[in-house]
Amino acid sequence: MKSNRPPHPATLAAQGLGWTDAQTGAVVLPIQPATTYIRDPDNQYRRGRNYARADNPGYDQPEALLTALEGGAASLLLSSGMAAATTVFRALPVGAHIVGPKIMYHSLRRWIAGYAADGHIAADFVDMSSLDALRAAVQPGRTKLIWAETPANPLWSITDIAGAAEIAHKAGALLAVDSTTASPVLTRPIELGADIVMHSATKYLNGHSDVIAGTLTGARDDEFWQKLVAGRSSGGAILGNMETYLLMRGMRTLFLRVERACASARRVAEAMVRHPRIEEVLYPGLPTHPGRDVAARQMTGGFGGMLSIRVKGGEQAAIATAARVEVWKRATSLGGVESLMEHRASIEGPGTPVPSDLLRLSVGIEDSQDLIDDLDRALSG
């Protein structure tokens, strides 16, 4: 019986959109190291390439795949998640007002604050889990961008994307969503009204802790999007050929990895809720999480592979717990196949909104019971 249903996104990812090498038939496209391309005899570039900084053929497949997965109009690969995010802010007019979340990736929060202090933009940070707080912070006509991160690192608070989009558009602003921890497997912000989706592709999109990369996907290929395209080229925030190849390799297993991480994270969270040495478990999939209803509405297939635990006994107890793990690895980053643990307050430094007793956990693809047992041993001392 023939079905007219289009391929599932997992199929598109696994097969890399079905692209093959035209010359050899290879199911993996070759790495193209060239930086420059031959002009036609009349000095034109009819094959569409002139210089790799502006137009690298290695970008075509991963950008096309990400665009399909996000349901957008176009995508860009950039040299890092920070490069992707800052490219958006640099494209805003001088003096533009932006609203961002109080809880977000700390390096970007610090950069935005510095960029605002230098007079490039004006910035306010609010509790983005509250649409009322967001609405109160927006200045119609002056606010040009709302930046959301959901689930927000490392407290995993949830922003109502559809609600935030309505507020942004009513005020004449754009909504950009850092969807790194959800990935397109769980959330498609453009379908909920977002204008731009950003990923630190270092994390779930690559998934193997061997590539630094960032991505942007636009709902429309419009004037602002073309500013981002120009910003990547003129700013030199480009991705190398080997990194592009490795990112594409990682994206092909995206659905398998994220689905496994979600299932294991939920098991870990449910086990840790009952642990006598834990004060609180922060995970959007728990019934006690204040953002669970919104998360359930906009996250399909799971609540993510990230959670945090607050250890009884304060900062020293948390650090001592991290010192005793064996299966979990004490390291920065998230979204890889290996499970990572980090004491966030000491990483973020003075002024962090992160509680000092908090450990951030990135659940990988190991056996979930091994992760639970290791964490139990570490907590029990």
Description:
- This protein has two domains: about 240 residues, Aspartate Aminotransferase, domain 2 (3-Layer(aba) Sandwich), CATH 3.40.640; about 130 residues, Alpha-Beta Complex (Aspartate Aminotransferase, domain 1).
- It is about 35% helix and about 15% strand.
- The protein is built from 14 helices and twelve strands.
- It is globular and about 75 Å long.
- The relative contact order is 0.12.
- The mean pLDDT is about 95.
Helical coverage, percent range? 25-40%
Tell me the major beta sheet: 7 strands, mixed
CATH class of the largest domain: Alpha Beta
Strand order of the largest sheet: 1-7-6-5-4-2-3
Q: What is the 3D shape?
A: globular
Please give the oligomerization state of what you see. Answer: single chain
Mind telling me the C-alpha Rg?
Answer: 21 Å
Query: CATH superfamily assignment of the largest domain?
Result: Type I PLP-dependent aspartate aminotransferase-like (Major domain)
Strand content: 15-25%
How many E-type strands?
Answer: 12
Mean pLDDT: 96
Rounded to the nearest angstrom, the distance between the terminal CA atoms is 59 Å
Given as residue ranges, the uncertain stretches (5+ residues, pLDDT < 50) are none
Indicate the CATH architecture of the largest domain. 3-Layer(aba) Sandwich
Order of helices and strands: HHEHEHEHEHEHEEHHHEHEHEEHEH
Q: Indicate the structural class.
A: alpha/beta
Count of helix runs: 14
In the CATH hierarchy, the third-tier topology of the largest domain is known as: Aspartate Aminotransferase, domain 2
How many domains? The number is 2
